[in-house]
Each structure stands twice: as C-alpha cells, then as structure tokens.
Protein 1
Amino acid sequence: MERNPCTSGDDEPINLPPGFRFHPTDEELITHYLSPKVLDTRFRALAMGEVDLNKCEPWDLPRRAKMGEKEWYFFCTKDRKYPTGLRTNRATASGYWKATGKDKEIYRMKTLVGMKKTLVFYGGRAPKGEKTDWVMHEYRLEGRFSALNLSKPAKVN
C-alpha cells in the first residue's frame, strides 16, 4: 500500500450522521485539542487528521480531512527553515504560506492560552508569488503550556 506524503497516520474519513458539524471555538481548539496533543503525541482526535503542510498543497487538503466541507482541521508539526534557527518553513513545492495581519490572543477565563495566526497561500516563490484564495489559521500554545515553557525543567511546588 502506497503511503501519501501529506498524511502521517491512518487518516480515514469518518462517517457521521446527517447534520453533524464540527465547529470548535478558538479556545476549544487550544484547550481540548492542541494542548493535549502537545502534552501527549499519542493523542488522537476523531475530527482531525495529521498532515505535513510542507509536502501538501492547499488543494490536496480537503481530501485529507477527516470531516468538513469548507473548513478542515489538522495537526501538523512546525518545520524549521534552518536546522539551528527559529524561522518557520512554510514553503511547499508550488508556493508558500505568508503570515498576514496581527496574531490574535486566545483566552480561557481571562488567562492567555494561545495565539492564532492567519496565513494566505501564494503560488510561486517570494517575493513575486501570486496571492490565492487559500487561507489557513495556525494556532500555537501560550502561557503555561507553550513550547517555551514545556522545554524548561518542570517546577515542583
């Protein structure tokens, strides 16, 4: 069986009853999905697949989704542009994802839990890429469960 480079698991579509919708809020995405995934890599969410966004073009994503019609949700790991650097690689074979606007803070009961970044896909190579209609929202943890704090030794009180 040939494995698709876009997926990183057995991501099969889910058959659900008519009318079922998966529309989590930003706070629900952070606290009920992203945070558990970061803390336990074995965590699986029935509604979300896993993809490598650097090996997958935006138009390939709908068929990789477990559910959804106009919105799809995926877990993916960040790829570094340079092995020793902090810059994120957002390039694919035919274009790149470019950040746009200001990051949005996501709160749970007045506590900052995450950030939401909006990205637009451009075909071609920077700086002469052509803007497309593909938009993606990238979520990251902030606060107690941020990658920065998880990499430090845990404090015991």
Protein 2
Amino acid sequence: MFQFSRVIRARLSRGIPRAHASHPYSTKVPSSNFRRNIALFGFISSPGLWWLTTTRDDVPRFEGSPTTQLNLPPGPSKDEVTQIVSEGAYSHRVDNVSGVDRYYGTQLASNSPCEDKFLHGKLPSPRNDGSQWMTWAVFDGHAGSQTADLLEKQLVPFLAHSLGQMKSLPSNDSVAEESIHNAITKGFMDLDKAIIDDAAELTRSKIPLHEKVKLLAPAYAGSCALLSLYDPVSSKLHVACTGDSRAVLGQKGPDGKWEAIPLSIDQTGYNMGEVERLQKEHPGEEEMVKNGRVLGLAVSRAFGDSRWKWSLEFQKEMKQNFNGPSPLTPRYDVRTPPYLTAEPVITSTKIDPTRPSFLIMASDGLWDMLSNQQAVDLVGKWLEPSEKGMELEPTYEPFDFGQFWKE
C-alpha cells in the first residue's frame, strides 16, 4: 500500500514541473516549488519507475469472461436438511393421558444465540381428581432471549398457581370453560406484571448494579407466548395466544382429507381486530399502527417490551441510571402507554375422539413459509402409514419476501 502511494506521487511530481515550463526552451530560473518538485521526483523516481516498468508482480489477477450460467455452490441435500432439522428434535409417547398418543417437536434457530424457547409436559388437573393435563408452549423471543428464558421457567408455575386457586370446576361446561379462561389470563397477566411493574421496586433495591441490570433484562427484551392445555376429562383443548405464534388443528374428514382449523389468530398490526382495539384504547393517535407495526413493533401483544409499556418519564430515568435502551421518542409519537399487553386470546375446542387429529404449534418462522392447510397436509401425509417413506412433493409456490410489501 505504501509503495503504491509512492507511485502515485511520482506521477504527480513528474507532471508538475511541466506545468510550470510555459516555453520549451525557457531560460527562466525555476521557482522554489519547481526545484522542490524536481528533488521529490528524483528521490522517488527509482522505485516509482520500477513499479511502472516491471512486467509481472505477485498481485492477484482476475481473468475470465462472465457466463450466462453461474456455477453456484449446491445447497444442502435432502439428507443434510433432515439432519439439520433433527438435531433439536424430540418425541414423547404419552401413556396415561386419555386422548393424547404422542407428540413431537424440533427447533431450528434463525440467529445465534437462539432467542426462542419451548416447553412440554404434564401438570396436575385443577379438578383435583388425580388426573393430569398436558401442556405445550412456544415462546418466540425478540430483542434478546431473556424474556423467553423467563417464560420457559415461570409461565407454567404461574398458571398452575392460578388454576389451583379454583376450588373446583363447575359441572356446566360453559361456566367451567370461562373459569379456565380467567385462570389462564390471570397467570399470563400476573407474570407480565412481575416483569414490568416490579422493575421500579427493583431499581430502588440495594442489590449490586450488575445484578439489577441482569434482572431488568427480561423487561427490555420481549417474547410472544403460545400455550396449549389439554383436559382429558372434557376432551377440551385450550389454546392461549399472546403474539403472532399460531396453533392449527388438523382433523381428518369422512372423505379422508385433512381439514386445517386455526385455533389462534396472529396478533399484529395487520389484524384489524387488534387495530380497532388499540385505536379505541388510544383515540386520536393516528400514527400508532403503521405498515403492520405498533410504534415499530411487529406484534400487538407480548411479554416484556417495557418501552411500549412504561411511562416516558420512567424510561428516561432508566436510560440515565442504568444505560437502558433509549425511549421510543422522538422516532415514534408516544403519548399514552401502555400500548402492548400480555393478555392472551383464548380458544377452547372439543376434540372428537372418533376423528384422527393433531395439533401444530409454531412461531411465525414456519407460518411465513406455509399456509395452515399446507402444514396440515404435510403432517397428515407423514402420519399416514401408507405414505411413510414416500417422497413428499411441495404443494406451494416458491417463496420470497415480496409478498410482505403488497398493500
């Protein structure tokens, strides 16, 4: 690099004296600048001329002409894809919960470290009859994994506590369903309250600064939550959704085809029901939802995400005292927080034991690529004994992100 710069200077120096010589045979005494340029040229002319006259050096050369067909490296093979997807896979047989035979799961991270978490298992039935309920959950984290980490550890204990406060489930199905919905909602909201509201008390505590920062992290990060509870006594599947993960039920019809039944609706700025709810809660804030986002955030409900929930004054205080993220202002017009809630939208579905069925739960990473019916068809083919081992041809159009910019 240094030698190359010297060549450039040699070329410039050699040109400068020519500019001063207005006549080819002038006898005028050269100026001081002229003498200085001559001296400079003489000092560096030898290496400079070597660079200019040499015929070969060891600098890489790029040769060849472009071709119409690029020889791109091949993508992973089918076996390699299977291996990648199977690295985090699990499968569990269920023996003592009537109506559930087996469940499977896997996870493929889109970033490192992965911000998403999941859980699965049994919890005591609030009926207090010694039976067990099944539960599964997917936590799609964003702006860090801390909120999803906390949900993985604490959401089921909060739910179990809330469900356990019910003395008994009413015999009336609709009343029992309402009681369960209220208990699930309370578990979700109590946990988010602990994350968001307890931050003020935490900042005033006497614990060391580094411990405070660590405990505040779940409030600054965020996460969606999709949770399912299955009650074998009533054959009811309760699905609670906060965010844009999705649950879809696949049921086999009399004609042998699989029907896709959505059990949750994505809660984003594209969901008109959510937009209307927010506009009612924050009248006059026309720029609150724009391009499918709520003050820049892709979801309209979430755990954590304190900047969409705390007052501006408290956000500024946290920024000053703990170097937290900057408030959403002035980029966004924040007037009347909170704009987000962790309150789930809950559905309850009676599972028909005479019809083969399965449940798919996944974050938006899957649903960005597949429709509900495409996902159900693929799982249905895989479950059919006659289809096992057969090549599954994709039934969907090639994907690109252009569809997100429509409308």
Protein 3
Amino acid sequence: MSRKGKDACNTSLQPKSRADDAWWDMPQVSLLIELMYEHYKKGHLISSTFSEQIWHEIGIELSQRNKTQYTVAQFKGKANRLRMLWRKFYDLVYKRTGFGWDPTTCTVTTSEDHWLEWIAVNPRESGLKKKGLPHFDLCTEIFSSSVATGTTRGVQRKRGQSDRLKRIDACIDAITACSEAKTQKLAKISNDDIEECMATLSKMEGLLRDLFFTA
C-alpha cells in the first residue's frame, strides 16, 4: 500500500476519544502511523510500545508536519486503539473466508451477504463495516511483531514453568532414592551388628539367660 494513498482513505474513524479527549482525523491518523513505522524500522519498538522519549520525538515530528500537538498519554491511547482495530480487521481479512482489503478506501471488502452473516454472529462489531484504517500494511508489520513477541514470551513462560517442574520432580526423585539407600544401608548394618553380637554372646560361658536376652 502506498503512503500516497492516505488522501484516498476518506473513511472516518472515531474522531474523539473519552480516554484521551483528542481529535484524530484521517490525515492525522495516517501521519501518526507513518511516524510510528519509521521508528519501528529503527528498532525503537520495545514490548509493543515506544519509550517516553520516542513518543516525544513522534510528537515533535507530527507537530512540525501537521501543526497538531498531542500528549504522550494521547499517543499511547491512540496507538492502543489502532492496534485493537487493526487486529479486528486482520482477523476478518486473513482468518475469514470471503473478506478482503481495499487499500484505496482503507476498508474491509466483502459481499453484502457476508456482512449480514458475520454481523448476525457479531452484532457488537457491526461498526467495522463502515470503519477504515490507513496503512493497513504498515500496521500489520508494526503490530504483528508485537503480537508475535507476546505469544513467544507466553510460550517461553510456559516452557520455563514446565522446565522448573521437571527439575523439581528430578530433585524429589533424587532425594527419595538417597533416603531409600540410606535406610537400606542402616538396616543392613543393624542386622549385621545383631548377628555378630549374638554370636559373641553365645561363645561366653556361664552367661545367665536373663543377661543373654538383655544383651
């Protein structure tokens, strides 16, 4: 998708957010995604977001190019909403049969029948039919990496927990084996001592029966 196509994306996003009380029109959203992508390519995306310093830099760049100022909190809030919107579009386009993407209108494409069937099952998401997202390809590159990272970390955590459990089981087995070995060794020593003691007592002449059994 060409970045020059942003002017053709005339669909409307939610213009005002209760979370950040900021106005975002399509050209501003398009420019924000471009700036995010530039910093993403520089390796500035960490744990699915940017640092405070990078957001400040994005704010300065956006202000210089679009004469609009936002706070770091507003950038973060908008980025999170863009990620959620992208994920919904991505699931439709890549995980559902019959849905596609129009880079000119920046919207999901499908037949009216497909929309009616999908909306019947997902009535709360009916607004996606009229919503748009500029630079869907750039968003896919930015946000899919963070989703993949999060999934990988989840798998790594599960593997780490599994490895720890295996090590604990191994330690328990080792302790049990050691305990059994010591018990067997003590039992063997005890039996040998008793037999030796009885043999010695039997050789003693004149030993009274009571003393023999006491010993």
Protein 4
Amino acid sequence: MDIEQKQVEIIDLFVKRASVSKGDDLASILLEATSHSWLFAFSEILALPCVAELKGTTNSVYLDVLRLFAHGTWSDYKCNTGCISQLVPVQVLKLKLLTVLTLAEVNKVLPYDLLMAELDISNIRELEDFLINECMYAGIVRGKLDQLKRCFEVLAFFTFQLYDPCAFC
C-alpha cells in the first residue's frame, strides 16, 4: 500500500471518529491525529463542524494545533509559541516533516542553510540524517543530497498537504 492510499484510510478513520465526538473526546482525537506517524493531511478533519465548535472553549488549543498542522510550518510554531500549546516530541517531528514538504512544494532545490534555519538544525550531518531517515523514509519527499552545492534537490513529494501561508496568520 502506498502512502496516498494509507493517507485516505487514516483520514477517513479520523474524520469518522471526530465527527461523532465533542469536547474532551474530540480534543483527544485531535491530539492523536496530529501525533499519528502516517497522517500528513489535516484539512478534512479541520473542516468538520464539530472541530470548529472548539473555538472559544477550554479545548480550543487543540483546534489551534490542528490549524498549525493543516496550514503551518515549524517557523510558524516558533513564532507563536505563546499562543499554541507545547508540542510533544512526535508532533515536533511531524511538524518538521510537514515543513520540508511545504518547502518542497515551492522550490525544487532547497539550500541546506534554508533547511537548517527552518528546522532549527545546527549542522549539516544532522540535516542530512533528518532528510534521509525521516523525510525520505516516510515517503513524503524523494530527492538527492548534493553535498558539494549544499542543497537538497527535490525529485518528488507527497501532495496531500497544501500549504496556505495566510491560513495560520
């Protein structure tokens, strides 16, 4: 089963579960969705009326996190840490993966310096390990590392996640 088929199944599962939930139960499902290792698209969940009803409640932080995962990047999170609850490690990894995906959708050549700044990675070895072991292994992006030019050349990327830079502002 490829990543796109897996996405459809996982999205359907979370949409079904979320659509019949409210309050704390719904918040728990949103936390699970943003932490799920194979879920990279969140717009369908975000579009549910019951999710929108979280706005202004004690569970609105989960709505904010879901919006971040649907439309934001690691930089968006870093700029809004006072407004968004702290992410757990699996969510941090996921948001960084989504950031690479977002960048890959815009540029086919990603300079190492840009990637290191966007992902808060301090050295090239750590960046290359992240790109190979996390991004390419997860199937969200395929590409070539060019150590001489210090860039990642994007060959293909997963297309479920569409980034709208104004949606999270």
